[in-house]
């Protein structure tokens, strides 16, 4: 059992409140996942630059790593994570250099707008460590994990990111993830953990790299991914939700003129502004829901 939340802002005036709202939603889901938590926020971008979210052990010298990398990168440190902004043309070289000089550092996400944070601990503590409530942006997703089939580690925490500005949170279990993993590896998709949720993220990355939209990739997964699942997915401009054909995992959504929100339970949405006037519904099984800022 895990808790997942998502928030897509439609009214730009509400974007400064994204982190505060998402933090409250995440904390409410604590009893569904007290082992670890994580979130991804889509904030402002800088033309021609890419954000690399790095993760290391407590007290790691990120400033020293920046000095080793050289170049024109900028760094923002947040506890065990840091966001390194680099010129787009230098991304591959910087990733290679990090692997060479700091193999103990993991690149957990990259993209023009996405920052991704996850850690072991109660959701309230994880959100507080990384100052989620102070973040602004257009959309974000979050996850609270109760480990049932694997150890409680940061590597097992969500979200998982397998492509630029792409990430996924998942409540459920995939039964055919090993076969899908082998196919993704043949297609050149890089996976870093044994977690079935990362396989789901990798599958969507593969389909979108093939030219499919987020909505189309979610629809494709219905024929290729077996198991019980609810996915909430973020891309640079979009936000999507999918439940498996049986829909045994709980899910509820709400929409107003200002936002679209998702929660594993309604109580995750109960504190949102204007929720009393929102259209509230349970997502249908095997139906992909998606919203895109570019279409707004």
TrEMBL record:
Keyword vocabulary terms for this entry: Glutamine amidotransferase, Transferase
Domain Glutamine amidotransferase type-2 intervals = 2-294
Keyword field contains Transferase: yes
What lineage is on file? Bacteria, Pseudomonadati, Pseudomonadota, Alphaproteobacteria, Hyphomicrobiales
Q: Which GO terms describe its molecular function?
A: transferase activity
| Organism of this sequence | Hansschlegelia quercus
Gene3D superfamilies noted in UniProt: Glutamine Phosphoribosylpyrophosphate, subunit 1, domain 1 (3.60.20.10)
User: Looking at the record's lineage, which domain of life comes first?
Assistant: Bacteria
Provide the protein name: Glutamine amidotransferase
Q: Which InterPro entries match?
A: GATase_2_dom, Ntn_hydrolases_N
């Amino acid at each position: 059992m895990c808790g997942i939340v998502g928030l897509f802002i439609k009214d730009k005036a509400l974007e400064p409140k994204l982190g505060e709202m998402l933090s409250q939603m995440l904390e409410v889901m604590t009893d569904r996942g007290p082992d670890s938590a994580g979130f991804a926020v889509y904030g402002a971008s800088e033309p021609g630059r890419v954000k690399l979210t790095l993760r290391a052990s407590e007290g790691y010298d990120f400033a020293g790593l920046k000095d080793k990398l050289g170049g024109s990168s900028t760094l923002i440190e947040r506890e065990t994570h840091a966001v390194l902004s680099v010129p787009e043309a230098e991304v591959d070289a910087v990733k290679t250099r990090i692997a060479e000089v700091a193999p103990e550092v993991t690149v957990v996400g990259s993209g023009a707008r996405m920052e991704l944070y996850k850690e072991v601990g109660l959701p309230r503590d994880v959100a507080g460590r990384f100052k989620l409530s102070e973040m602004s942006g257009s959309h974000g997703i979050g996850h609270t994990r109760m480990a049932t089939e694997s150890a409680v580690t940061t590597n097992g925490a969500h979200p998982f990111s397998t492509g630029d500005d792409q990430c996924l949170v998942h409540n459920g279990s995939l039964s055919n993830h090993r076969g899908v993993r082998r196919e993704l590896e043949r297609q050149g998709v890089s996976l870093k953990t044994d977690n079935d949720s990362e396989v789901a993220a990798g599958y969507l990355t593969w389909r979108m790299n093939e030219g499919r939209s987020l909505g189309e990739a979610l629809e494709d997964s219905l024929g290729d991914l077996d198991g019980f699942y609810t996915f909430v997915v973020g891309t640079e401009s979009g936000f999507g939700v999918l439940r498996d054909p049986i829909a045994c995992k709980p899910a509820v959504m709400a929409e107003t003129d200002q936002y679209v929100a998702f929660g594993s339970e309604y109580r995750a949405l109960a504190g949102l502004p204007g929720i009393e006037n929102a259209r509230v519904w349970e997502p249908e099984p095997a139906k992909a829901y998606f919203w895109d800022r570019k279409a707004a």
